[in-house]
Amino acid sequence: MRISNRFLAAASIAALSLFAGSAMAEEKLIIASEGAYPPFNTLGTDGTLSGFDIDIAKALCTEMKVTCTFVANDWDGLIPGLQAKKFDAIVASMSITPERLQKVDFSKKYYNTPPAIAVPKDSKITSVDQFKGKTIGAQSATTHANYAEKHISGAELKLYPTADEYKLDISNGRIDGVIDDIVVLTEWTKSDAGACCKILTKLPVDIAINGPGAGIAVRKGETALADRFSKAIAAIRANGTYKKINEKYFSFDVYGDE
Description:
By secondary structure, the protein is α/β, with parallel strands linked by helices. The chain contains 10 helices and 13 strands. The protein has helices at about 5-25, 50-65, 80-85, 100, 145-150, 165-170, 180-190, 205-210, 225-240, 240-250; strands at about 30-35, 35, 40-45, 50, 65-70, 90-95, 105, 115-120, 135-140, 155-160, 175-180, 195-200, 215-220. The strands form 3 sheets. The chain has a 5-stranded mixed beta sheet. Helix 2 (about 50-65) packs antiparallel against helix 10. The longest helix has 21 residues, at about 5-25. About 35% of the residues are buried.
């Protein structure tokens, strides 16, 4: 049977279009999170990541029409792992700061909450200026550690690899206070595990340290991917998906000011 050149050309174009569409549908991203920062990210005993960060990331992947795989990684190794191309993005409550922007690029923020200090319930400390000669704990390589170093004068700063470790030390009376995101500390002090402690105060944001909020980190120079995440964040804010996820975890809008 003879087939015209025009038919073959049309068939080739159709096949290429189908292939291109299939390739786009099969785009895949590997997203890393810490898994030790509830309620934003938690690693279950079965190795599954969950929490606000993860639900937001899944919604963004759906909006972007990409297939995402999630992996847990220690906090200190997140940026090095991204740079080494072990994964494509970080969604781990990572604040957008000038220091980090030298190493990675970020989407626009997907939430923004202030820092706070928690102390034991029987603590005699009633204000931040009473930490002189006292020990305050923070997770290492975080904006909260930098904040304490700059603003809590006279205090000894003790750094921990994870938030769980400083929580254990303050529960056992080994430190006098801890600094972290107000949501993290509030949720913890409301739980049985955090029954030892109370929120002392919310702290004023230092934009030079805290930045404009938490964003999605991508490799330096991959601004197109960062922009896609930013557009997807705006889209889920507009279509109500963000609100549903927010209400699953919080009684207020963690996005902060528009």
